[in-house]
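Ticket opened by: R.M.
Priority: normal
Category: complex prediction / small molecule

The reporter submitted a protein together with 2-phosphoglycolic acid and asked that the result be attached to this ticket for the collaborator who will pick it up next week. Submitted input follows.
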Amino acid sequence: MRRPLVAGNWKLHCGPQDAERLARDIRNTLLGSRHQVDVVLCPPFVSLTAVRNIVRDTPIGVGAQHLFWEDKGAWTGEVSAGMLHDAGCTHVIIGHSERRQHFGETNATVAKRLRAALKANLVPIVCIGETLAEREAAVTDQVVASQIREGLGWLSEAAWATVVLAYEPVWAIGTGLTATPEQAQAVHGRIRALVSELAGPAAAAALRIQYGGSVKAANAASLMAEPDVDGALVGGASLDASEFAGIVEAASR
Ligand code: PGA
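Result attached by the on-call engineer:
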């Protein structure tokens, strides 16, 4: 049985003070709930420590939204996997579509970041997904397959056990448009089949595949009910403690 993972991607929201408040709200809201879900909060770099301090004695994990692949050196402005681990991170998001779209992230750089994350014992949440134009051109499967083959195709079967995939159709991110449960399941199922081809049926069966793109408390239950949807990567709705807790509850059922 795969344990769902619900991660809040706070994006460019919440400096340390706001992050502390939001993390405390989320922690307190989840405290009484007996959910069976892994929960991770991903604030901006500068707020990682503040969030870490709030969730320190809880099962809630802390993730960064990005990392650089070098360990150290003359790379002004970058943050390494080791530094994130040092700061108390358990997870890191890699290859988010906003990074691909605005900051030149490619499948090749995803592979480099992924290697660095695994080396530092961070759980990578690797994002994949097609744009609206790609969906309309009926090439969703090809796009997602090449993102997986080029970004993750080199992983050993053992390494797959630590990786989380997040299927996020780009047209659903921050738009209020959500993939239907059937659309999500169709892609998730094909992703799992491809991973089975690459790494074997056991690795594929154990792999957690999150759905992301305008997930809210109101639509989470039907998405999470699909057999190959193992949690959610949540943007906007993760900035509201009760919305986020609603998604965690839905994933737990
Ligand atoms: P959204 O973002 O929930 O605001 O659509 C999801 C994401 O970008 O991970």
